[in-house]
Design a protein that fits this description.
Helices cover 69% and strands 1% of the residues. By secondary structure, the protein is mainly α. It has a domain of 120 residues: Tetratricopeptide repeat domain (Serine Threonine Protein Phosphatase 5, Tetratricopeptide repeat, Alpha Horseshoe). The longest helix is centred in the middle third of the chain and has 22 residues. The chain is globular and about 55 Å long.
């Protein structure tokens, strides 16, 4: 019996969709398949242990570079930017560190070219710009920080909870530390809005509490500032997080010491025992 025209068409349609199911995972057509649960776990593990297992971080970066080489998956590419940021954090040579942060930005731009609203890409580009600003001269730093502000405000609009309200935290710190008008755009009022919101969303976040304590102290709210500083200094810190959190514990210790409380203990981290 001859196959009807309708049947032939139906066979072709099924064959077409069957072929789509077998597109290689790193191809441009598989934009929504790269961040599987297994791949996410691999990325998160490397991100968490980046300060204590550099070989694992580098291996994961190389794996993700290959995986995203021909991909149009903006989220996966932005995750590569995130890992590159962590790699740059470990670099002690200033010039090389700047180059690595610039690489992070370039990868984030690649993700944003595919999706201008990719929260991951926006966030990691912004914080990498902030790190470059720390290593740059004043004029270059101010130029970068204004662009950084725009990116972070967009993150807040799209997903204010990303990275434990990381955009709110960063904006609060920027507004607090920058000089105000006419020199720059610093504002303790804006800083308070963002850090209060970050605290509301993630009250146990060590970074938020350190920044909040510092701001409150400068505003004369010493008792409240000390409360947040004490939280940071007594928070259990995983060994994997010690490098990253050292800066924030230092901020909290400084706030606590300025309260002139003789009971302040400038001790070491309290490690979380598994």
């Amino acid at each position: 019996m001859k196959e009807s025209s309708s049947a032939r068409k139906l066979t072709i349609v099924f064959a077409y969709f069957f072929c789509l199911l077998w597109v290689p995972i790193n191809s441009a057509q598989s934009s929504s398949t790269l961040l599987t649960s297994e791949n996410k776990q691999r990325i998160e593990w490397a991100a968490w242990r980046y300060a204590v297992d550099t070989p694992l971080l580098l291996e994961t970066i190389q794996w993700l570079r290959v995986l995203t080489q021909e991909s149009k998956d903006s989220e996966a590419i932005a995750e590569l930017s995130r890992l590159e940021y962590m790699r740059a954090q470990l670099e002690v040579n200033k010039q090389r560190r700047i180059e690595l942060f610039e690489s992070c930005i370039a990868i984030a731009d690649r993700a944003l070219a595919l999706n201008a609203n990719d929260v991951r890409g926006l966030f990691w580009k912004a914080v990498a710009m902030g790190k470059i600003a720390e290593d740059s001269g004043m004029l270059n730093a101010l130029r970068l920080i204004r662009s950084m502000e725009e990116l972070l405000l967009k993150v807040v609009m799209l997903d204010e909870t990303y990275e434990n309200a990381g955009a709110h935290r960063a904006l609060g710190r920027i507004y607090h530390l920058l000089p105000g008008f006419p020199i720059s755009f610093g504002s303790n009022q804006k800083a308070l809005i963002h850090l209060q919101r970050a605290y509301e969303l993630f009250p146990k976040d060590v970074i938020t509490r350190a920044f909040y304590a510092d701001l409150l102290y400068d505003q004369g709210q010493k008792k409240e500032a000390r409360h947040h500083a004490d939280f940071v200094m007594s928070a259990p810190i995983h060994q994997e997080d010690e490098l990253e959190y050292a800066e924030y514990v230092k901020i909290a210790r400084n706030v606590a010491s300025k309260t002139n409380d003789r009971t302040v203990k400038l001790g070491n981290f309290i490690r979380f025992q598994e």
